[in-house]
């Protein structure tokens, strides 16, 4: 059976186009489901998160206390015995 | 343990799981408790100190606090951990983290920083490698 003009077009163009579409989708789809990647300088519009911390740690309260210029739980942070380091990028 | 599993976070579940695993493993190796915080630090170091003091056992805890918007990272070591993990090692960990943060990879930066902190804290405990006087 000889294919008609339309069938020939589908065979030669449609199938390769479908294959290309599948490959493109397979490449791009994981990026759509992944959380948006942060780029330096962009605003950070996410909830504060503490990982491996004590359950129920009130991060927001800790932040708001210090941002108000007061001290956490009445303890003076200026005489901190803690060590560590700071950096910017 | 993640504090608030349903919060809108920039990290994938896999990234969070990996971070949690790294923090827990480092804690087991060193005997200290490692936590990470990602969010705003309006008073920079004071904010990090305030969060650190809310941890279960602050004296035995290490907190890595990152504010991606202000591009600030703070490492806070508790009073007792400080004897095993000096500030120089923390600065090295900060350097490792900021090189990752600069290309936008916050999760990997924290993970690498924790590994550096763990290596340095652990190396101080290996007393049998000390040479006799």
Characterise this structure.
The complex is a heterodimer of chains A (89) and B (133). Chain A has 89 residues and is mostly helical. Chain A has 2 helices and 2 strands, in the order αβαβ. Chain A has helices spanning 5-33, 59-67; strands at 49-51, 83-88. Chain B has 133 residues and is of the alpha+beta class. Chain B has helices at 13-30, 45-52, 87-101, 106-123, and strands at residues 33-38, 61-67, 72-77. Chain B has a 3-stranded mixed β-sheet with strand order 1-2-3, with helices on both faces. In chain B, helix 1 (13-30) runs parallel beside helix 4. Chain B starts with 12 loop residues before the first helix and ends in a 10-residue tail after the last helix. Mean pLDDT of chain B is 86; it is low at 1-6. Chains A and B meet through strand 1, helix 2 and strand 2 of A and helix 1, strand 1, helix 2, strand 3 and helix 3 of B. Strand 1 (49-51) of chain A pairs antiparallel with strand 1 (33-38) of chain B, so a sheet runs across the interface.
């Amino acid at each position: 059976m000889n294919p008609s003009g339309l069938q020939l077009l589908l065979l030669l163009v449609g199938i390769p186009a479908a294959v290309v579409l599948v490959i493109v989708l397979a490449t791009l789809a994981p990026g759509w489901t992944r959380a948006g990647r942060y780029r330096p300088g962009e605003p950070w519009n996410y909830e504060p998160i503490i990982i491996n911390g004590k359950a129920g740690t009130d991060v927001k309260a800790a932040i708001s206390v210090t941002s108000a210029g007061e001290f956490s739980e009445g303890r003076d942070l200026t005489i901190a015995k803690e060590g560590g380091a700071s950096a910017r990028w | 343990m993640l504090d608030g599993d349903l919060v809108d976070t920039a990290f994938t579940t896999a990234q969070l799981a990996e971070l949690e695993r790294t923090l827990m493993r480092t804690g087991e190796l060193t005997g200290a408790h490692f936590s990470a915080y990602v969010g705003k630090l309006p008073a920079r170091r004071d904010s990090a100190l305030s969060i650190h003091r809310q941890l279960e056992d602050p004296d035995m805890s290490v907190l890595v606090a990152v504010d991606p918007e202000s591009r600030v990272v703070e490492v806070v070591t508790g009073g007792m951990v400080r004897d095993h993990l000096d500030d120089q090692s923390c600065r090295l960990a900060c350097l490792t983290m900021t090189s990752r943060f600069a290309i936008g990879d916050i999760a990997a930066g924290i993970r690498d920083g924790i590994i550096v902190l763990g290596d340095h804290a652990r190396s101080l405990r290996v007393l049998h490698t000390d040479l006799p006087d």
